[in-house]
Amino acid sequence: MIPLRVDILRARFAFFNALLIAVNVIAFLHEVTLSPKMGRALVYTFGIIPAHEQALFAKHGITLGQAILPLFTSMFLHGGWMHLLGNMLFLWVFGGAVEEALGHFQYLIFYLVCGVGSAFVHTIFNLGSKVPTIGASGAISGVMGAFIVLFPKSKVTTLIPALLLFFTVKIPAYLMLGYWFFLQFFSGVASLGMSDQGGVAWWAHVGGFLLGAVLVLGERTKMRSAAYG
Fold it and tell me: Which end of the chain is more exposed for a tag (fewer CB within 10 A), N or C?
């Protein structure tokens, strides 16, 4: 299922959401100019490596900067065009409404907190791993978690592929995003105990989604109070 748009009318332009998309695109355009060797060095320097986070606490030659900086920089790097485009599509579809609900600057802080939080969850479920992880999906999962709490009954126009045909349907956000979360959680459970081969950071998705949902519970209460006068 590919989300295309939501049926929420916004009064303001989602400036920070657009800025985050632009920064991700610019960072990726820089990545593709690098040689394979330099690209690999970039990923290992600015991607999340769970073993490095552990080494910081064990005082094994990892500085605070080497452990903390990737928690932020990793969410602006991507492993390929499809990785980038898929993430940016989800951010574009769901981020604008969340930014309007939270406010511009608060949304930026929220996004970064979800990205860092999802990185910690990924680290916890991949202790000892030396495989770097990059991508904005943990932070974007937080945005999706916020969306399902703030706008559960809004309709998501979704592209459905069926063999060689494509059609669109409008699906309530709680069904579309609930199904997405179930897939992430199920895949995360299935990945437990597997060898350290890298792949999709399922638990970053799960952690980011839950963190985003929890962080906006107060805003959901305010929205309900305003609706009832």
Answer: C
